[in-house]
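Input record (one chain):
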Amino acid sequence: MTKYLVLALVLFSACAKKKEPQPREAPPVAAVGSGSGSAKAPEPPPKPKEPPPYAMASDVIEPVRNAINATDRSIDDRMLDAGRMPGEVLTFFKLAPGQKIGELFAGGGYTTELMARIVGDTGKVWAQNTTEVLDKFARKPWTERAAKPVMKNVVGVERPTDDPFPPEAKDLDLVITILNYHDFVWQKADTAKLDKAVFAALKPGGVYAIVDHSAAKNSGIRDVESLHRIDEDVVKKEVLEAGFELDAESEVLRHPDDPRDWSTSPRTAGEKRGTSDRFTLRFVKPASAPATPPAGKEAPKAGGKAKAPAKAPAKKK
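The corresponding structure, as predicted from the sequence alone:
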């Protein structure tokens, strides 16, 4: 019996000497606060990309210059300035404080906001979009922009292109459309009816301002949907037939090296955006013109070219 008791004690002692498994140590918890071992602060969000430089020509008028240089303009808007050259273009179209303006196809409102800043509290802008354009891509950006205090003198108008303005939008100083006349054509708007509606809305001497992407010479309306371009001769012919006179043309957006064989749509143009060859036409309603052009009126002859604001000098690298 004693023999077996001794053997049991020996076995128990041997088992006790085996190493017990140790629990895993938890990783050290970083201290909160400054100093060594503190947790890393979250990375700051990347800074928005700065827009390319846009040095306006010296003869851009002060109200236009101030509108473009406003510090509360969005970076997205300012990214478009170098390609669109709004200082030179809006100066050429004679925008000024206190004017009443109609805009065709306002889209998301890039040009609308600039004009609202220029005409100021004593002016007014009727900015037209069709229901289709708003529902397809413009309603959200337009609604967000329209809520800005600077847009308080803007009336958003949801109407068909060929009947663009309400009755109260009359005796306007200017009607403008930027890069959209070709859209009116492929969207099957009645452009003859549109141009007459613009004529009726303008006061005598008022300006009809058109900028668009130029298509190849003698191409007519072939490229209005596929390349978003139009032969400028088509635009001139239609607008002159509505009773307007061609007052002046600007070369400020001309790019003679443009082959005119690529789509200018913002969705497909990519890095080429802002480099298309564009015509800039200033038509006027004759000072002695009736409220509406008589039916069957022949197109008046085009006027001479006026000197446009010079292009800004290229910035040295």
